[in-house]
Design goal:
The structure is a single chain. By secondary structure, the chain is mainly β. The protein has no helices and 15 strands. The strands form 2 sheets. Strands 1, 3, 4, 6, 11, 12, 13 and 15 form an 8-stranded antiparallel β-sheet that branches. A 7-stranded antiparallel β-sheet has the order 2-5-14-7-8-9-10, with no helix packed on it. A hairpin with a 2-residue loop joins strand 12 and strand 13. The protein starts with 45 loop residues before the first strand and ends with a strand.
């Protein structure tokens, strides 16, 4: 990204996760507006500009009274969350990665968050990088504890709104999962370098996430998603 990565930080002190609370509802497949046959798998590294519905996206819900609605429309992935304290997880099921760089251009409403996922494994868990509308960012370890019971454990939570426009809530976010490190980006700027050796996740799928907090509805829009090796 043009900036040499800083030295890895020591294992961070866990910070409380503000909202939403750990999820407790059954993961639910959320269908898109229209059925679509599963296409040939994309290349290992690709950019999804959401021009067409892809059968490789699977959307799961955690928490909340009403189901989020994902829709591919006008070259965008739009996730509408109608109820408070609701989490929507979108997993791209085509490939499994050990080291991968996931980036997206996003915009979203206040009182919510958007994020990226790497090393998603239904049995072992996943890493999730979220950016909230107030400029707070977090890395979470997500895990399904049993059928219908999911839990998020905060790895780190911090605030750094210098690199994200909290007025327009539009920008680019990036999550580079490389070996034992997670590198967090906002608008091409590296803001954190974390050693996650102790969490034991070595490979998995990539994805996106959006969440509402105390207020609803909340809308999140992904203009594109890019999966690369650097």
């Amino acid at each position: 990204m043009g900036t040499p990565p800083p030295a890895a930080e020591p294992a961070p002190t866990q910070a409380p996760l503000p909202t939403p609370l750990p999820a407790t509802s059954t993961p639910t497949l959320i269908p898109t507006d229209a059925a679509s046959p599963t296409p040939a798998p994309p290349p290992l590294y690709f950019t999804d500009e959401f021009d067409t519905i892809s059968g490789y996206w699977e959307f799961l819900q955690s928490g909340g009274i009403n189901a989020p609605t994902p829709a591919f429309e006008n070259g965008l992935l739009r996730i509408t969350i109608p109820s408070a304290d609701t989490w929507s997880i979108g997993i791209h099921n085509a490939r499994t990665y050990s080291s991968v760089f996931v980036r997206a251009k996003v915009s979203f409403d206040p009182s919510g968050s958007v994020g990226l996922i790497c090393r998603y494994d239904e049995e072992d868990g996943w890493f999730e990088y979220n950016l909230a509308s107030d400029g707070t960012y977090s890395i979470l370890l997500g895990q399904w504890l049993a059928e219908g019971i999911a839990q998020y454990k905060p790895i780190v939570t911090d605030e750094d709104s210098r690199f994200f426009d909290t007025a327009s809530l539009t920008g680019e976010i990036g999550l580079f999962c490389e070996d034992n490190f997670l590198r967090l980006y906002v608008n091409d700027t590296l803001i954190r370098n974390l050693d996650v050796t102790n969490y034991g996740l070595t490979k998995g799928k990539v994805g996106v996430t959006a969440a509402s907090f105390a207020e609803a509805p909340m809308n999140a829009v992904f203009e594109w998603l890019r999966v690369s090796d650097k």
